[in-house]
Amino acid sequence: MSLDFNSPAFEVIRNEKKCIQCKVCVRQCSNKVHSYDDEDNVIYSDDIKCVNCHRCVVLCPTRALVIKKYPLEFRENANWTGAVLDEIYKQSQTGGVLLSSMGNPKSFPIYWDKMLLNASQVTNPSIDPLREPMETKVMIGRKPEKLEFDAKGKLLTKMPPQVELSVPIMFSAMSYGSISRNAHESLAKAATELGICYNTGEGGLNRDFYKYGKNTIVQVASGRFGVHKEYLNAGAAIEIKIGQGAKPGIGGHLPGRKVGEDVSATRMIPVGSDAISPAPHHDIYSIEDLRQLIFSLKEATNYGKPVFVKIAAVHNSAAIASGIVRAGADAIVIDGFRGGTGAAPTRVRDNVGIPIELALAAIDQRLREEEIRNEVSLIIAGSIRNSADVVKAVALGADAVYIGSAAVAALGCHLCRSCSTGKCNWGIATQEPELVKRLNPDIMYKRLVNLISAWNHEIQELLGGMGINAIDSLRGNRLMLRGIDLNEKELEILGIKYAGE
Amino acid sequence: MKTIDALNVYYRDLNSSIDEVVKTDKTINLKNVFGQRYIGRGLPENVKLKIYGTPGNDMAAYMDGAELEIFGNGQDAVGNTMNCGRVIVHGSCGDTLGYAMRGGEIYVEGDVGYRVGIHMKEYKEMKPIIVAGGKAGEFLGEYMAGGAIILLGLNLSKGENITGRFCGTGMHGGVIYLNGNEDKYKFGKEAVKVDITNEDILFLKKHIGFYEKTFQKDLNHLKLESFSKYAAVNKNPYSNMYCTY
Ligand code: SF4
Ligand code: SF4
């Protein structure tokens, strides 16, 4: 093969004064960056292999390591940047489609940061959540048009199935296969302790995890991996995956090398076989066909589970969402273009889809105009980074959010964006036993519990500040939002006023 | 044996009354079926339904061991994600028959539609099988990952092909047997013709024998050794397509 034109992305700097040659870095780096030469008694590093995952930096006992951006500069050019050239070098060498991990890293506007929340002053008092009751519980599912009671006040209306969440946050779909068994178990355990849900992703449900069923959303994608009657009945709800924010129009593909014995048993496919879930469900070409799939799932579960439909946020999401409600879904999941993934074609990840904030506002508005907003819950995903994002999402109209990247960050992910190599040093996006065991689910799940509990507190404080004591009263309450640094059109789509108005 | 008259019964009511009857009676006759969907969905082992009329879409979806015999045509998505059991159709079937089925058997007396047997899988001893007496539409066995499809091509008119274009596209497991050795079928690039072995002939004998018996046909004239067999080129067809960045 011809010369590799790519230069290292990172430089590994070892402070020789601090280094005690314990060789932790040599043992920890699955990319084999560090190596020990016993003849010369030195530790070398090969910069080009480094993905900047910080594993060695965090574990080095003397803090002797620093990873820096490689200081090599191309001749200054605002158009032909180093990143653009590196991609050309890579593709001209391999002939491959560029594949990346995690969400869109480009500098598109982040609308969460252009919206500000309100607080009560003088005329209506704020509420102190430490002293006063504050409700963050939500129910996900279709709500009836009206409620009927008998003379004694007993509810007569038969409620459609609902999922109760103690906080409006769930862990988004990450299949066992794309992430490790231990990462999966950490999510399942944390969801159970928190009274929320995690999502199996499209890879089936391992036998050992059926016990977390009450806190599990089971997913059904075009490849139907591990989908059978028991699986459908094992969770709290079923999610049909049509699209994913990181790669709208592209399906899932787990390479055979990640399908070991246990993943094979979970997906119910042979060891080493590719698991391909193409974007088109070839039994769905219309809203009527989607309805057929939704109701086949309802039939298989005796109408006892809400059925969610997940789509990527794309140009006409609002019209599509309206169709999904009419197809009978109990919840719509909209995944914005910043949503994470184990692997996505780079061009798709970086150029397809729209920001979740705009999609959410447009969908909520459209469903209200059509007077069908009550028939469905709206769940959004695609880079919810903190509790303020959650509160703003609810004010824009969301019932709940899914978090993926934030959840794996709580487990140690440092957003190095190399999940697709399967060598995650943090034991998350890998199936290699040596790496997987670095993540102990019995310890790590507590970090997820901590994160969501902390966010819950912050949500309560933000709600209290606005004088609101239940998250349900904030939903779609866009008067609590003001825009900053936004143009007229953006304000119009978001349905909010400018700060100062 | 119990009989349910499905005339003018809404599909939900029909399916829940089947569930009700199954508790005490494992063998049921359904008569006057007219388009009701999801019949047989998720039904377990030992349940036998005889269906008279025209059952609607998604019959036998997620079916888990039951046996359905249909005296009429099947519609679309028969055996969708079926886990095990058997479906016998005395007639023809529509599109996406056996979508992602993982186990069990489907026997169709006549023709089948587009995208039949797509995403078919297998896992350990579970190996799904589709046998159809006539021809199939385009994209037969697309994304097939396991199991077997047998097409007998009976009663083709002159010049008519046994299968449409793009057969076996994206195939990465399983096998497709077609009656005839002319290599004129337009296969996707992920499928390849392979030699037929003695084992294949025994396999064909067994399932074609069942077809003969079930539909009371004499197929002695079929030359099993001249069937064509297609399999996946590779179980990881797209492994060289990407470079990580
Ligand atoms: S890949 Fe990670 S562990 Fe290896 S040298 Fe780079 S930062 Fe350290
Ligand atoms: S999951 Fe692992 S490989 Fe993927 S971005 Fe995070 S640290 Fe890197």
Report on this structure:
The complex is a heterodimer of chains A (501) and B (245). By secondary structure, chain A is of the alpha/beta class. Chain A contains 15 helices and 21 strands. By secondary structure, chain B is α/β, with parallel strands linked by helices. Chain B has a domain of 110 residues. In chain B, 12% of the residues lie in helices and 27% in strands. Chain B starts with a strand and ends with a strand. At the A-B interface, α3, β5 and α7 of A face β12 of B. One iron/sulfur cluster binds next to α2 of chain A.
Distance linking N and C termini of chain B: 63 Å
Relevant CATH superfamily of the largest domain in chain A:
Aldolase class I
Low-confidence stretches of chain A: none
Strand order, largest beta sheet of chain A = 9-19-18-16-15-12-11-10
Name of the level-1 CATH class of the largest domain in chain A? Alpha Beta
Quaternary structure type: heterodimer
Radius of gyration of chain B: 18 Å
What is the beta-strand fraction of chain B?
A: 25-35%
CATH topology of the largest domain in chain A: TIM Barrel
Q: Which ligands occur here?
A: iron/sulfur cluster
Blueprint of the fold:
The complex is a heterodimer of chains A (501) and B (245).
Chain A: E1 10-14, H1 24-28, E2 34-37, E3 42-45, H2 55-59, E4 65-69, H3 82-94, E5 97-100, E6 115-117, E7 138-140, E8 163-165, E9 169-171, H4 181-194, E10 198-199, E11 216-220, H5 229-234, E12 237-241, E13 252-254, H6 261-267, E14 275-277, H7 287-300, E15 307-312, H8 317-326, E16 331-335, E17 344-345, H9 346-351, H10 356-369, E18 377-381, H11 387-396, E19 400-403, H12 405-410, H13 433-436, H14 441-465, E20 481-483, H15 488-494, E21 497-498
Parallel strand pairs in A: 9-19, 10-11, 11-12, 12-15, 15-16, 16-18, 18-19, 20-21
Antiparallel strand pairs in A: 1-4, 2-3, 5-17, 6-20, 7-8, 13-14
Chain B: E1 2-5, H1 11-22, E2 27-34, E3 48-54, E4 64-71, E5 84-89, E6 105-108, E7 129-132, E8 145-151, E9 173-178, E10 191-194, H2 198-215, E11 228-232, E12 242-244
Parallel strand pairs in B: 1-2, 2-3, 3-4, 4-5, 5-6, 6-7, 7-8, 8-9
Antiparallel strand pairs in B: 9-11, 10-11
Bound molecules: iron/sulfur cluster (SF4) (2 copies).
